[in-house]
Write a structure and sequence with these properties.
Layout lengths: L5 H25 L2 E2 L4 E2 L4 E3 L5 E6 L8 E6 L7 E4 L12 E4 L5 E4 L5 E4 L8 E6 L5 E6 L6 E6 L7 E2 L5 E4 L5 E2 L1 E6 L2 E12 L2 E9 L7 E3 L8 E6 L3 E7 L10 E5 L5 E7 L4 E8 L14 E3 L7 E3 L3 E3 L2 H5 L7 E3 L10 E6 L1 E3 L4 E2 L5 H9 L4 E10 L2 E8 L5 E3 L6 E6 L1 H40 L3 H12 L18 H7 L8 E5 L2 E7 L5 E7 L7 H13 L8 E7 L2 E7 L7 H4 L10 H21 L3 E3 L8 E3 L5 E3 L6 E3 L5 E3 L2 E5 L5 H6 L1 E3 H17 L15 H10 L17 H14 L10 H9 L15 H9 L7 E2 L4 E6 L3
Parallel strand pairs: 25-34
Antiparallel strand pairs: 1-10, 2-7, 3-4, 4-5, 5-6, 7-8, 8-9, 10-11, 11-12, 13-22, 14-15, 14-21, 16-17, 17-18, 18-19, 20-21, 22-23, 23-24, 25-26, 27-28, 29-35, 30-34, 31-33, 32-33, 32-35, 36-37, 37-38, 38-40, 39-40, 41-44, 42-43, 45-47, 46-49, 48-49
């Protein structure tokens, strides 16, 4: 047996390893590269050298159509950043993606019909196509006698809806090529959508969003520098374009992308490794109803409703299928075509905001305004608007009505043109409404009469209850200025007993500062909430009358609705509409339930509370200071919309009154403004302070009264202010929001909250200003001053006061002090 020389064996192993690694390197490099006449079929892919991106065939959502595209590799959900054949998908067919000898990329079906091609210039050298780690797919040529590589075509020159680092959005001044983003048609269809983002060729340093319907730039976009997004505009002799890098520190790794969404919003996403998902850190517009023609023609947009769009009276969706899929851009169409003539008339649509009128007639009368519209066959609607100082102007719209928004803060009406037959039909329908209402009213009275008779026979006399009711209704404070009694239903004690199952413990919803609250059911299953005031409660008859009187006068979607009251001996009860989700504090301070409130819901709650407060301070016929705003007094309905409750401490301001003082300071520790807690002074700015605390609690999930920054000896608002000043404001945010939050919106909300809790009442904004700041995309906010630091001092002073200690409820400290002059 011959033995091989050890050196020969080592050399053989060396050759074997060399062949293996050369073969592995060849295969690995081939995975991101195509050569002429090489094809990719439906189950094959290219993967960039760093495994960051993949190119291949894919289907989107529930669609069976097949596309060639590029997407991120190794993410839980497929995120497509570029699509080749977005207008010509493969339908029920097997596709082939080929690099031709001439350097053209071609997508063809099984019949060899070309669906898409790059149509690039002819090439004669060595051609290759490669998918780069940047997400760019390039076709390049190396000349036979020149080692210089020439790029024949690249996907970054033909963006879809996504902008990545290394891409350009702008215009090539030499060739005229325009690089822009175009939205998908919808989430399942990457075909060209309704919106485009790019440079205005008439103003080369400005970037706009174009709606497809107008073809004109309508929204100027200024993208701010973000934590992982550093944009810059580049101007050369050959091109003007926008580009961005994802990080200034290239040693750090992150992923970001700017997307022109099918909703019309431009959104900046960043990838969070902790949550393994994309999160929006910036968007413009910030809400969908701010997008031009978001609901198409003849449709009203309301961001607080689902669906957000509804057709105007006399109209129906142009495409029911798209409407059901959430694509409202095709809008609505008339049920009956206009006849154009004096037989047409107008239907009023209340509380809407619509811009860009076609004609303005200045100080024309209301009748002249209507006649002007009626005389033009192109006129679709008119409005007669109070423009200030009791001056009215006529606005007329021609053609399709778009960009209509529901706005309850406005009292103006839009008069929409409809056919006379439609109006007559509506009139006939409305004629039945009073008849139906009378029948329902009479039936209800008979039913209540029988029920009351049954209760009398069951329990005996209700005389005590009715006499107490007569006393309270005859009291001067329960009369309007015109000396007409307020219409508030009174319910007997026995009726409430039956409704609450004799105030069963299982019906108890919670315990407030003034007593327990019970769930009840009216006949027919209508839910109610009964606030049963404890006999030892500090809310006496004066506060009780105050609450009944105030809520009876107030009607707003963000205020709780009072259904009635009950007085029985020493018993006093208020009956409200039932809020199935109870109070806000039961969510934001609960580790489990807080996760049910993502950032979008929390921001909606903040805005809803502000709208309710604006109504109290400004828009109602009375100016009302609540004086006891806190999270437990914010109730949530079945849609998680907030409603302000508990008006026992509220005060009415008359005329031009802006401030008052009291010897009796009432409220809840942590929510009271310093000037009110220490000096008894209260105003609309006192409520603003309480609202600011609520804002910070909603954002942080922390309870103000129980929070203390021991390291820096700071109160809750002081802690928030310190984080904001140090540039770490997001550290205040509830950790459960990291996956869903819009960080710029969170920071803006913290900023506004800190403005609300400034120590000097004069420095705090009004609620109207708060709403403007929250809704604005470009407003520069003032820097907040140090917040009130009285909380700990005032508590100690209260405890040592000769006036006596504060009283405590089960849930929070409630302060009620009788102060001497």
């Amino acid at each position: 047996m011959n033995k091989k020389h050890p050196g020969m064996v080592s050399f053989s192993y060396f050759l074997l390893h060399l062949v293996f690694f050369c073969f592995w390197d060849l295969c690995h490099s081939a995975s991101d590269t195509m050569i002429p006449n090489q094809s990719i079929t439906d189950r094959e892919m290219l993967t960039s050298s760093g495994d960051k991106f993949v190119l291949g065939f894919f289907s989107q959502g529930t669609s069976n159509n097949r596309y060639v595209g590029i997407w991120y590799n190794n993410l839980p959900e497929q995120t497509v950043i570029w699509v080749a054949n977005r207008e010509n998908p493969l339908a029920h067919s097997i596709g082939v993606f080929t690099l031709g000898n001439d350097g053209n990329l071609v997508i063809s079906d099984q019949r060899q019909t070309t669906l898409w091609s790059t149509n690039s210039s002819m090439a004669s050298g060595n051609i290759t196509a490669r998918l780069l780690d940047s997400g760019n797919f390039i076709v390049m040529e190396e000349g036979p006698y020149n080692p210089h590589i020439r790029v024949l075509w690249q996907s970054f020159d033909h963006p879809s809806n996504t902008f990545l680092p290394g891409m350009k959005i702008g215009v090539n001044l030499r060739t005229g090529d325009n690089w822009f983003l175009s939205s998908w048609k919808n989430m399942d269809d990457p075909a060209l959508g309704h919106y485009t983002f790019g440079v205005d060729t008439k103003a080369l340093n400005q970037f706009f969003i174009w709606p497809k319907t107008t073809g004109q730039p309508l929204m100027l976009v200024n993208i701010p520098e973000q934590e992982n997004f550093f944009p810059r505009i580049v101007k050369t002799e050959e091109a003007v374009y926008l580009e961005y890098s994802s990080l200034k520190n290239s040693s750090l790794k992150t992923m970001s992308r700017l997307v022109m969404e099918s909703s019309g919003q431009l959104k900046l996403y960043t990838w969070l490794d902790t949550s393994k998902q994309w999160t929006v850190i910036w968007s413009q517009p910030t809400e969908q109803c701010s997008v031009y023609a978001a609901c198409g023609a003849y449709s009203i947009c309301n961001v607080y409703k689902l669906p957000k769009c509804k057709c105007l009276p006399g109209f129906l969706p142009s495409s029911h299928q798209d409407w059901e899929l959430g694509d409202f851009t095709y809008g609505c169409q008339r049920k009956t075509a206009l006849q154009c003539g004096s037989q047409d008339s107008f239907l009023p649509v209340e509380n809407v905001n619509i811009t860009r009128s076609t004609l303005w007639l200045g100080s024309a009368s209301a009748e002249d305004c209507k006649t002007e519209c009626l005389n033009s066959c192109h006129c679709s609607a008119y409005a007669y608007v109070d423009v200030g100082g009791s001056n009215f102007s006529c606005f007329i719209w021609s053609g399709e009505l778009v960009d209509i928004r529901d706005d309850n803060s406005l009292s103006q009406n839009l008069y929409v043109r409809v056919t006379g037959s439609k109006l007559r039909g509506s009139t006939r329908e409305r004629q039945w409404i009073p008849v139906i209402a009378v029948v329902i009213f009479v039936t209800g009275i008979l039913f209540l009469g029988m029920l009351m008779r049954w209760l009398i026979l069951r329990k005996g006399s209700l005389g005590v209850s009715f006499s107490s009711a007569k006393l309270i209704l005859d009291a001067p404070n329960f009369k309007e200025q015109e000396n007409v009694a307020i219409d508030v239903p009174h319910f007997s004690f026995e009726f409430i007993e039956v409704a609450t199952n004799n105030f069963a413990e299982s019906n108890k919803l919670g315990q407030g500062g003034f007593g327990p609250v019970y769930k009840g059911d009216f006949p027919g299953g209508h839910g109610i909430a009964v606030k049963r005031l404890a006999k030892t409660s500090q809310q006496g008859m004066e506060e009780f009358k105050n609450e009944v009187m105030l809520i009876a006068k107030l009607q707003h979607r963000n205020l709780v609705k009072l259904l009635g009251y009950c007085i029985h001996g020493d018993e006093k009860m208020l009956i409200y509409e039932y809020m199935p989700n109870r109070s806000l504090d039961s969510f934001i301070f609960d580790e489990t339930r807080s996760s049910l409130l993502n950032w979008e819901k929390r921001f909606s709650i903040i805005v809803g509370i502000a709208r309710g407060l604006l109504y109290l301070h400004q828009d109602s016929r009375l100016r009302i200071i609540h004086r006891d705003l806190k999270t437990s007094n914010i109730l949530l309905d079945e849609e998680m919309k907030p409603k302000i409750s508990d008006f026992g401490m509220a005060r009415i301001f008359g005329g031009d009154q802006t401030q008052a003082n009291t010897k009796r300071v009432v409220g809840t520790y942590g929510y009271m403004s310093p000037e009110y807690a220490l000096d008894g002074l209260f105003s609309v700015k006192s409520d603003v302070y309480s609202f600011g605390i609520i804002m910070l609690e909603i954002i942080s999930g922390k309870k103000n009264a129980s929070f203390y920054d021991s390291e820096h000896s700071l109160s809750f608002p002081g802690h928030a202010w310190r984080l904001w000043k140090e540039g770490t404001g997001l550290d205040l945010m509830d950790p459960s929001l990291k996956e869903t939050c819009n960080s710029s919106e969170v920071l803006k909300s913290i900023h506004v909250g800190l403005l609300c809790v400034q120590e000097d009442a004069m420095d705090r904004p009004t609620v109207a200003s708060v709403l403007v700041m929250l809704a604005s995309e470009i407003a520069t906010l003032p820097s907040p001053k140090r917040p009130a630091g009285f909380i700990k001092r005032s508590l100690s002073s209260i405890e040592s006061s000769s006036c006596g200690p504060p009283s405590f409820s089960l849930n929070e400290v409630t302060i009620s002090l009788i102060e001497g002059r």
